[in-house]
Design brief:
Elements: H1 2-41, H2 45-99, H3 110-117, H4 121-134, H5 140-152, H6 156-169, H7 174-191, H8 195-208, H9 213-267
Helix pairs in contact: 1-2, 3-4, 4-5, 5-6, 6-7, 7-8, 8-9
Amino acid sequence: MTKWIIYGVLAVLVAGSWMMYSETGKEMSKVEAQISQLEETGTDEEQIAKLKSALQSMEGEKTFNGILLTFLSAGPIGIFMAVHLLPFFAQRVTHAVYDSGEKVEKDVMHDARSLMAQGEYEGAIAAFKLAAAADPLNRLPWLEIAKIQKNNLCDAAAAILTIRHALESQEWELNDAAYFLFRLAELYDEVDGDRATAVSILNQVVEQFPGTRHSANASHKLREWAAAGEAAAAGGDAGSSARLAQTTADEEAEYFARIQRGSDERNS
């Protein structure tokens, strides 16, 4: 409402300035006509001088009115362009460049991220679930929920259930399904300490996505785990052998010590 009042006041000022400018121009035309008539007759030089002086004053007034009119006219035009036209064209250009005229959608996870930043983890989880419902093919809400449960709520079991639920809730694209399985294997191995289940999940990746980079990555990870297991087993065997050798040496030393003590006792 205030905006339109300002427009109205500026319009009145522009109209007033235009009337003053127009009236001054008419008066100047009349004075110029009178001067021409007097100059033709060659009489009343004093009157001619007065009219010329008045004409000069009118020219100055007309110039001032012209400047005022220009200033007041530019004001409403500039405000209208800045407030209405420029945002309109900017929006059209943005749509043309980024989304071919489609409406710019609000980030469905904005509220969830805000709640998470404020430490409202339960509220953030609820908001991420709404985001998942609004954008079912987006895996990020489910991953963010699992991250909150694991890192902020220290509930690895809930994080595992979240990833499992996301996997089973619908059919996912290959990349998304593989990503969920890798994340699930990591949770079982690193957090839950269940290497056997993690191995089973990666074998599932190898079987379900043969010939893909996901299968290759899973195979590589399985080889790493196998090598680590063999090294740990070898280290355990070496440790057992070392402990057995040390025990045997201690027993032999004790045996020879007893013999020496018996010999000393007989000699004494």
